[in-house]
Design a protein that fits this description.
single chain, about 500 residues, mainly beta, Neuraminidase, 4-stranded antiparallel sheet, 2 helices, about 0% helix, about 40% strand, globular, Arylsulfotransferase_bact, Arylsulfotransferase N-terminal domain-containing protein, aryl sulfotransferase activity
Amino acid sequence: LEATGGLIIKILTKSYEIPLIPVGESTEVRLKILGIGLGIFTEIPNLFITASAPNIRTRGKRIVARILGPLVIKEGEFWNENESFEGYTLFSPMISLNTFLINNSGEVVHMWDSNFKPALSVYLLENGNILRTAFPGFSPRFWGGGIGGRVEIFDWNGTCVWDFEYSTYQYCLHHDVEMLPNGNVLMIAWEYKTAAEAIAAGRDPNSIPMGQLWPDHVIEVKPTGNSGGNIVWEWHIWDHLIQDYDPTKDNYGVVAGHPELVDVNLGAHMFADLNHMNSVDYNEEFDQILLSVHNQNEIWVIDHSTTTQEAAGHTGGNSGKGGDLLYRWGNPQCYRAGGAYDRKFFGQHDAQWIDPGLPGEGNILVFNNGLGRPGGGYYSSVDEIVPPVDENGNYSLTSGFAYGPEEAIWMYTAENPADFYAINLASAQRLPNGNTLICNGPHGIFFEVTPEKEIVWEYLNQEPDLISNHVFKILRYAPDYPGLENLFD
């Protein structure tokens, strides 16, 4: 047992023996220290616990602790991780220029460097390159959480082979991207709307923070050369609004009668960020896009088979509905189909379809942060839902009711729910063995749980302080993933 950092620190227990741990079981480790170290004026204490035995791989765990004396007991656990999915985990700490690839022992096996911090996602492509969002360090007009403006591709050796910037007084990339099968890249971005434009769209004049609004849109970029690209498709939520506030405006209507449209008077009552989308995913089978919309506490599905012109209207595409919402879930209050206690999502992140061939394929997995969860409970969950979709990508809805399902088919929370809470950031990924990989973003804690919700692997981002520890999203890749071929050369 070791400890570093803090103004005064003394370990009262140096070492002791623990019994051999059977598969699937754990043992408690108690570490007594004497110290002060709030992590504000001095380095925050780091407590290191290492367990080893003959013929068993050494396991270590680091606990970052705000210690306020005279005596605090911190507890850690070790477990046999034979049930974890062997692979390599990719992540990019928020306050870092580096992207790391680690094995299940927590060892860094590869690293990429950029001149810019992430904004905020990174992906390993099948050719061994990484696709990452980036923040150049400035924004001409607007600043919001997850701000970016730049997308980069690095090869395995760390050379930037492509970049694209989309940040002006009128628009700015943020949060997430998605590589399409054709090599184009989906990106989410804000766009600037004046107070006059907002009022013309039926927005309440008393709810225009900063005298402007920044709704979201999605662009598809076809890379050109080593820098730049052409926007070959786009979709704007501004083209799909409704409101029941101002009867003099063209989009005035009955919100409850149009769940395919979005009420312009929801979201952004304190800030100009109207929707705050924080993830984008693509379904190749249906040619549809899945969006996580933080400020509406919903996920949305839209049709990607449209032309840009059709995406701006209400007809066309495989769905015949143009750019209107095909499906939404998480907060039926947004379309007057439920009350406060019908709400399911609370500041959610990382909505994604579970990939074909994986347990739960076609279902939607979401990290449900729990921000503002009713009952005063501050806890997060990972929710898996089964969307009411047929083989042609059509979603069923009974008029006057909310979209199904009524509840998640699977949900992970901590045994003591309050022990697992991420106020922002965070992600979840379904693994081939049926386990789920979870990132507790603001704490930099990664862990893997079985379908029975047993933790079988855990890792703490090894950055030196709590702010640097923040991680938006993690992804694990199987050893036979094509993008890892260079790792074994």
